[in-house]
Amino acid sequence: MGKIKIICTSTGCLDYAPKQYEDIKKNIGIIRIHMFFQGKEYLEGIGFEPEEFYKVMENVKDVKGNLPHTAIPTHEEVCAAFDQAIAEGYDQIIVIALSAYLGGTWNYIRLVAEEYKGKAEIVVVDAKVTCFQEGELAIFAQELVQKGADVPTILQEIEWRKAHREFLGVDQRLDYLILNGRLKGGKAFMGKALNICPVVHFNHDGELTSLFSAIGANNALKKAAMQLKAWIGDRKEEDYVLYRTYTGDALREKQKALEPKFGIRPNHPDVIMSCVTGINVGPWIVGYAYSPIRREDEPLPEVPDYYYDQTGKAKA
């Protein structure tokens, strides 16, 4: 078995992951997304802490005239990540990339990886989500590497988690969803006029959609809590990870205040959302990330087809 390197895109929030991951994340490479805001360019995770970023976003008067945007990593940056891994003796690389629905990063890294055939075996995984649930996959993969798992087994475990994880969020204001084209036409007009708050959700194809809506943030938070409880069902607390996730602070206290009424008990530190995500949804969102942990009685799926497609190996 070869030496396996795990890499994650910067949207996985590894730069500001909870302290419990300090040691393991040192072994994970990061490919950074570009951000453009108020006339300056940044690499996500460098030079602009998310807390500071969201406070600045909250105070922008003319959102339309100061709309931030993002760009995929350059060819040189992706190659640098692969070249460094190879120089360190790795001959197998797994990249966890943010959902392909959110832009061209996953596909671009995959295309660059094709240039390395014969140098290293590289598999680029579409996380079908972003923020720390993406980073969780990278941390989990690194844990499996350290336990001696091979690439096919790691991918099977990742695919199980992808198929069972859930994310939902409540967005108090629609400005960024509208201006970034994620809420359009009549829905955008009526949403602002009626103070409608969407409950957004990453479906299992990796698309950020509106799961349902409510009039006012309190009602949206209640609906989100009820949906979360339905997803958890009777699963034991030790068999899942649940944490709050957010951009700005606007709704955080309301979110926490409602939790006892619905029996919501996060068992993991809160994690702020990536700046790249905040650029698309704005600084007024709070939500939950729910990630079940596979039990021994829950079977793994088959090795995913993309492993064979990207490595050129034949199915056993």
The largest sheet has its strands arranged as 10-9-8-13-11-12
Average pLDDT, rounded to a whole number, is 92
Separation, N- and C-terminal Cα atoms: 17 Å
Quaternary structure of the protein: single chain
Biggest β-sheet strands, sense, barrel: 6 strands, mixed
Q: What fraction, in percent, of the residue positions are helical?
A: 25-40%
The domain tally reads: 2
What is the overall number of helices? 12
Summarize the structure.
Helix content is 38%, strand content 22%. It has 316 residues and is an alpha/beta fold.
Draw up the topology in text.
Blueprint (H helix, E strand, L loop, with lengths): L3 E6 L12 H4 L3 E3 L2 E4 L2 E4 L6 H9 L10 E3 L3 H13 L4 E6 L7 H10 L6 E6 L5 H15 L4 H14 L1 E6 L3 H5 L5 H9 L2 E7 L5 E8 L1 H16 L7 E7 L5 H11 L8 E2 L2 H7 L3 E8 L12 H7 L5
Parallel strand pairs: 1-2, 1-6, 6-7, 11-12
Antiparallel strand pairs: 3-4, 3-5, 8-9, 8-13, 9-10, 11-13
Describe the 3D structure.
The longest helix has 16 residues, at about 215-230. It contains twelve helices and 13 strands. The chain has about 325 residues and is an alpha/beta fold. α3 (about 75-85) packs across α4 (about 105-115), α5 runs antiparallel to α6 (about 150-165) and α9 (about 215-230) crosses α10 (about 250-260).
